[in-house]
Amino acid sequence: MTTSDQQFRSLDEKSLVDYIKSTPSLSSVVGTSDNLVVKEVGDGNLNFVFIVSSPSSSLVIKQALPYIRCIGESWPMTKERAYFEATTLKEHGRLCPAHVPEVYHFDRPMSLIGMRYLAPPHIILRKGLIAGIEYPLLAEHMAEYMSKTLFYTSLLYTTTTEHKRAVAEFCGNVELCRLTEQVVFSDPYKVSEYNRWTSPHLDNDAVAVREDNVLKLEVAQLKSMFCERTQALIHGDLHTGSVMVTQDSTQVIDPEFSFYGPMGFDIGALLGNLMLAFFAQDGHATEENDRKAYKKWILRTIEETWNLFHKKFIALWDEHKDGSGEAYLPQIYNNPDVWQLIQTKYLRDLLHDSLGFGSAKMTRRIVGVAHVEDFESITDANKRADCERKALNFAKTLLKERRKFVSIDEVVSTMQQADP
Prior knowledge:
Strand order of the largest sheet: 1-2-3-7-6
Largest sheet: 5 strands, antiparallel
Distance between the termini: 58 Å
Shape: globular
Helix content: 40-55%
Number of helices: 16
Radius of gyration: 22 Å
């Protein structure tokens, strides 16, 4: 047993109050009075999450457990994920402070992070999408977050020496990477005890995924890229449950799966989950609201997210093209024609990577272990299965044919055809 293990203890509402009172970086935020209110709000799969409130202020405490919370001690999981989460929150917060909550405190032996509380009306984006709420600044904000965090941690901006050092540090987050490898790239394509789907409605669809050889070849390529390509410091789990929103605020949380991986995995996770939200809308439609207008808003948001990301990413690249980044040395790539070729190919490849990873993320949410509330909250099993089947069939088509798309507009048109 390591010293860190010996120092670890799981906190509850009472012991957390004592911990805060003895920790200046936390007590300076909420005080040390006896009327601190602690509420456990963790509805995720892995961790305890507490909101701690005093009459004047609040903060969030997140503590990693040495196992997967939604399954129990039979599936052990390293507590060190809290270190990578805190490190990424700080780094991404430095690069994009407008869209990442501030970290007040990190205790490595206790696997505990104290951070800014995102006060109401902030809600999880996924819940807002289920409720049919439009967020006019979502695409702009997410494009800013992704362009800055991905560009500034890539070789387009950093030296190979800096990059390799950072890659080496984040290689330590191997257990959560292996979890992703299993649940995204492996389990949906084989018989696994953890897989589930809307049964019996999708029984044949699940079998079809497992027997689709072309699909398996494509997923193998994506898994290889996920495991081998250290392109940038990615969030690693950037779905709509990892974003909190209001009409004018967008905050990215929960980067415990972070590591140096392919940029398209982050972009694809966000786009793929917006696509899931689109296909789920018919299951939430009522006589008063057929959700047709809202579906159009989701499609516009998907388009705008990629197009704004493209624009912002290119602008950062142009601004720093003579900087320290070693991917494309100015002495070699210093004429406008070759520069145009490089940027066009880079972003085209990134679009295709993003569409591939987005497809894989959609598939695992329908026939894999962890599903999404977008579909799960549709109580009518027949309606739910219809929505899921459309999403699954689109995901399969997108994965196999992603390289033929030149623009996100073409992808959106294909989505509309898949949802007549």
